[in-house]
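User: what does the whole thing look like in 3D?
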Amino acid sequence: MTRSFHASHSNPIPSLRTLLTAILILGLGQATLAHADGDDGAPPDVAYRQKVMSNIGSNMGAIGDILKNGLMLPGAIAVHANLMAESAQLIGPAFKKNVTTKMTDAKPEIWEDWAKFEKVIADFEKAARDMEAAAKGGDMAAIGGAAKALGKSCGGCHKPFRKPKEESYHRMSHDEHDH
Ligand code: HEC
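Assistant: Here's the predicted 3D structure for the full assembly of 179 residues, as structure tokens:
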């Protein structure tokens, strides 16, 4: 009796604390992002689509880390590839609304040639599925080839639809410190 009373009483305390910590971290995270974006921060639509893209970038980076360093993480590449393939369906809706601002690297060509934008999304999704299949197959040569093709599919969209590094808003916000 005493034990279960204690158990039910002590459990909610750490979980509440965890929740509060999570809220605090989220709040701080938002403040940090708002600050990084400058006075006229990225509009919510732009911030969202950049997060969708960041996630894809993180999964790609994780696969790169595993392959380059030979990390022993069985099954991980297939999961990262699957997450990227799933993310493909988020891209269209994320960019559908034509929102341009100086805090974006999206080129106006996206909204001028939406059909082509959808085509390169499909190419990317296929490359991610091929990567997942190769990872499950376990053949290193096939995995390497699929990783290369997947990387190429990023360029297939970035080249026509994303501003080059020299024009990136990332760089512009850094340059402001130099002036
Ligand atoms: C269908 C088009 C498309 C595909 C496919 C695509 N990207 Fe992008 N990506 C974009 C666009 C457009 C932007 C710029 C978004 C903005 O600034 O509003 C972007 C931005 C990014 C960013 C910067 C996000 C930020 O925080 O500003 C990263 C990282 C990124 N992409 C990684 C990748 C990787 C890695 C792949 C392939 C595995 C990939 N992308 C595939 C269109 C694409």
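In plain terms: The mean pLDDT is 84. The chain has one domain: 38-178.
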